[in-house]
Specification:
The chain is mainly alpha-helical. The protein is built from 4 helices and no strands.
């Protein structure tokens, strides 16, 4: 697991010491965008939050759960 985890005197431990691999800022942005959409934030607001000029870019970034599509369909279409 994580070797050299920070104690009271240490502030941080490099991710490689914790054996965390394939972690990139892009994944955090994508997770945040997906979570925001899942919680009901309009895609236009997520677009502005991420600083995307085109909404198509935001749509590629965020994953939409099928269950949310179904509930939105029931809510807005019937």
């Amino acid at each position: 697991m994580c070797q050299g985890f920070p104690n009271e005197t240490e502030k941080t431990v490099p991710l490689f010491q914790c054996e965390v691999h394939h972690v990139h800022p892009h994944k955090f942005r994508r997770t945040m965008a997906t979570t925001a959409i899942d919680k009901g934030m309009p895609i236009e607001q997520v677009q502005r939050l991420l600083g995307h000029e085109k909404i198509d870019t935001t749509l590629h970034y965020a994953m939409v759960k099928q269950s949310n599509v179904k509930s939105a369909h029931r809510k807005y279409i019937g």
